[in-house]
Structures are given as structure tokens and as C-alpha cells.
Amino acid sequence: MATKKTTYAVGIDLGTTYSCISYLTPQGQPQTLPNTEGELSTPSVVFIDGSETIVGTEALRNSVTHPEQVISHAKRFIGDPNKCWVIGGKVYNPVDVSSAIVRKLLDGAQEFLGVPVTRAVITVPAQFSEIQRQQTVEAGRKAGLTHVDIINEPVAAALCHVLSEGMWFAELANEQTIMVFDLGGGTFDLSLVKYNKNEVRVKASGGDLHLGGLDWNLALEKYICDQFASETGLDPRLDRESLQAVTLEVEQVKRALSVRPKASVMVQHAGRRKTYGLDRHRFEELTRQLVQRTQDITLGMLKANKLGWAHVDTVLVTGGASRMPMVRDMLKRVSGTTLNTSLSPDQSICHGAAYYAGMLLSGQSLEKSSLNKEATAKLSQMKQQSVNARGLGILVRDMESQRRVPHFLIPANSPLPIAFRQRFGTVVPNQKRVHLHIVESGTSDTDPPVELGACVVDDFPSRLPVGSPIEVTIRYDEQARVHVEARELVSGKSARTTIVRKENVTQGFTEEGASADLVSAEADVAAPKVRTAGPSQSGIQQPSVPPAARATKASTFVPHPSGKPAETPPSTPRKQPTPNRPAGPAKAAEQPRRAAAPPRVKMTIPLEEADRPIPLCNHCGEPLDTRGRCPACLPGATQRKSRPQAGTAASSQPRKTRKRPPGN
Known about the structure:
This protein is an alpha+beta fold and 664 residues long. It contains 13 helices and 27 strands. The chain has 3 domains: 1-165 and 345-381, Nucleotidyltransferase, domain 5 (2-Layer Sandwich); 168-341, 2-Layer Sandwich (Nucleotidyltransferase, domain 5); 388-593 and 603-629, Substrate Binding Domain Of DNAk, Chain A, domain 1. The strands form 6 sheets. Strands 19, 20, 21, 22, 23, 24, 25, 26 and 27 form a 9-stranded antiparallel sheet that branches. A hairpin with a 4-residue loop joins strand 12 (176-183) and strand 13.
């Protein structure tokens, strides 16, 4: 029997409709663990019965008789601060519901393994924002885990594919590219993954957080209820119990139509009962638009990365909703290749998470690991690298329009971990603190940016003059979580940072990946256009400014007036960006040029309005334009640089140009 010191490699697939948990055997093979009822998959449904919380199949059974006490599909609402359920006078949010589901899985694992599970890897959709990732970690910790790591679901599927088929030690003549098509119950994830002998690297990701098997259910549900209402004049959607009964029937019909051409569904409401026959062709007609959405996202990701199907060696299909023939037929048609359906749609994600847990555990001492020496040696050689699905940056002020616009420092689909530095100048003497409003891009080009919170940077040294350069480093870690740090360049002191959520919850750095050491990135790397840079300036939503940001003069930034900021790192030619680093912002607040151009807004705007920082050139300290470029450093700026702006010190250092070699 295992001792209390034994640590197992455990992976959890926290799904929208079903969840499961697995672990690696001592030989390094994944095995799905049953819950306390002996089921390998647990419905992600919670039934609140007074002081008792019931999770799984029993909760699903009570969803018809007690629909007002049952919570399902909580994963679709994680990250939404306004979503909650009130049952029996108590309020439950998505984190509470998710933690109850994880606790159910952990109870079954403890019963099977004989020891409590305190460390696990939980999977998340690739499109999850930083807030959604943090809340997933929080749900795991509320369930009793002391150490939580996360991994993107498509990456977990790719690891399961590579490792379970013994391909990780095969001698591959060429690097292989696989497309992971993961259509689950509530989300759709898509990733392009490259692998060779010992490495799995994500090149690009896409998907839709609100597209999954549930949407096919809703299409069927609407059709059936409309039929019943037109024939009887009674609408089952007006009664919660009747609607829940239809919901369960529709789920069974969807599953049946995946394996046979016809099925029937029964509707009972207000003392009336009717049975309707449904064939696969009709089902496909009702959900044609949903299939088209998956096709558009798939082809769009290939086009965005300038790839064709000839560059894809394998199309790997996973996720419960991918069983539907209409989905697989679409993939076969557009790809022109045979699909790889070797993975279990229900268990491959948690198996991949268990593999990743084993990779992390292989760095631990053998006395603590349940893996034998051979499995530890193999897993320690395997590496994985993911990408961020969303651009990361800050809100800045457009000097001409006075709008607050997103200034993305790290583009989407950048290899992780990655960091970017930007310099700003203080605005008042002896400034002690500033506010940065951190934002992520939306899940699509048309979605507005998501404000993660206000990052309060404090503990600056005493007696700082106006315009003292502050270097801010924003980074994604290996698990796409956000860290922010600032450094005062004159003294070299680092400043503390805290991300303050909109709901006024202060999040400290978590145990894993807590250190935020500065990355030795080139400070003036120029970036390509950010694909998910959000809407145009005229369409940007303007989030309200926290009162604290308006109440203090020290909560502002203005451009650094010096033409030569302290400790400026050497520049890098724009045409040769540093590998695995962002090439710079795609959009920034448009700033006035150094040459006199009167109807421009002055650089120094009223303090009460300067609640967003203005990005500066990391080389010369001048403000950037709307494309993230420094007007003073562009070719042809020779005349401009000789005419410094009023109130701004001229630089004694030659301006940077595109052709200037590094270090000059």
C-alpha cells in the first residue's frame, strides 16, 4: 500500500457536461479513476439538498423533480462575476460549483488510491482568459488541492496522442504537424501542434468558448418544443420541470443519432404526452449553422497562419460532441484526409493531463513520486510548449481622441513563457505609486478587450524627480497566467505589484510560478500586427476608472522627458525580432510628433484625466504612435530630431533607425 508521502501524477478534465480524473500507474500509463459510484465519467451537475451537496448522476436524476435546486453547465459561466445561483437562501458562484465537482472526483480517487490527492493538473480551454484560469485554480484549491497546475485541453489531447501511441521515442525523419479538433460539451478548441522526438509545441490556437454539444441540444430542444406548442397550444418551456425533462430526452436523442439513423423523443407537459420521430438528416438541417461555425473557425485558423491542409499531417479528433457524424463528415470533406479517431473522446483529455502531471513530477525526488525510475526518466525528457490565446497589454490614452484604447504588448499565439517590457515616466515629484489597467484581447477580432484589473505598483524610492523612468514587465508564464512587475531604473529597485480585480478581490501570486524575475528580453523589439488587437479606436468600450485612480496624483503616467532613459538595453533591428518574443505592440495611443504641429493636444494633460499611462519608446523615451512606432526613430526623422518638443530635453544620443545595427 502506498505511504502518505507518495505523490501521484493526477490529471482532471473539468468539463462543461462531464468530468473525469485519471492518474499514471508506476509504469507511466494513464488510468481513469472511478468516482464513488464506480463511474468513469461524472456528470458536471450539482444538486443542493438542504445542507447536503450531491454531485453527479444522482444530481442529474433530481434535475427533473427539483430543477430549482440543480446547477449544471457552470463551466460556461466561470470568470463571470455577475453569475450566481441562489438556492435555500445561499448564494453559489461558478467557482463554488466547480469546486464541488472537483471534490467529488478527488473523493473517488482517494477511495481508489488509498491516500488523499493534494496535487493535480486541471485542464482548461485554450481560449480561457487569465481570470478564468485563476478561478479554475481557485476551484481546485477550494476542493482541497494544495498545488494546482493547469494545461490547455488541446495540448493535453496532443500529449495523450503522442505518448499513448509510443511515438515519443520514435525516430521521426521530419517534424510532424497535427491539428487537434476538440469539440466538447460546452467549448470548441482548435490547435496546431508540432511534435518531434521529445517535444510538443503549439504553433497556434483558436476556438469558441460558447460552442459545444450543448448548442446542438438547444437546437433540437427548440424544434421539439415548437412542434409540441404548435400542436397543443401548450409550451413546455414555460414549466421548469417539463423543460428539464425535455432537456434530458434531447441529450439521449443526440447520442442515439450518432450511432443510428433514427430516434424518437417524448414530451410530457400539462397532462399531455407526445412522441416525435427524428432522423439524422433532419438533425443535420437543424444544426447546419453550428457545423458551419466549426468549419469557419478551422479554415480561419489555417488562413491566419498561412497554412494549407498539405501542411497538416494528422487531424486528431476528440471531445464528446465530435462523435456526431455531421462534424466528422465536415472535417473529412474540408481536409481531404482520414481523421485520427484513436483517442477516447471522453477520457483523452484527462489522460493527457495525467501525462503532464507526470512530466512535472519527474523533477521531484523519487521518494515522493509514485512513478518508477524508468517512467520518470522517460517523462523527464518530454517537453511541451504552448501559446497564449489572447493578446496581453494595458489601457492607454489616445492623445488626440482622449479615448482609452488597448495597447497590446504581447500578441496572441506567442510561445510561452514570454514577457515584454515597456517604459513609462512618473508625473509628480516623490511619486510613490501608479496604476496600470491590464487587459487581454477578446476571443475574436470583434470582441472588446477584457480588463483583468488594476495593477497597483507601489514602494517607489523616495525623492524621485518628475519623469523618472519606470520599466514595467508584463508576462505570461508557462500556463498562460499573467504576472506584472515594475522596476525603478535610477535606483534599480523593484516595485511590488498586485492585480486588483473588478470585484475588489486581491489576487496574490500563486505558489507555482510565483517568482516574476525579469526576463532578459530586448526592450525595443518591434512587433508584428496583433491579430486579436480588438476593435477600432472608435468602437472601444471605455471602462469606468476606479475612484482610487482619480483620487491621487500619483496614479498617473506621462512620457519620460529625457531622451536617454537610464539603463537602456541595446536595440534590435525591427526586421530581426528576437525568437520567442513578441515583436511589440500592434496599436498604441497616437502621440504628437516632435515637430511643431499646432492643433495637437499638449503632452501634459490634466492630472485628473491622465488615468491611463502613455507608452514610450524603449530606446529614446519618446511617445509611440498608433502603430506602436516611435516617430523620432523612424527613417527620415533626422530633421525632426533636431527640433525637440517644448518642455522636453533633446536627446544627446543618435536616434534609432530600422537599419542601425544592434548596440549602436
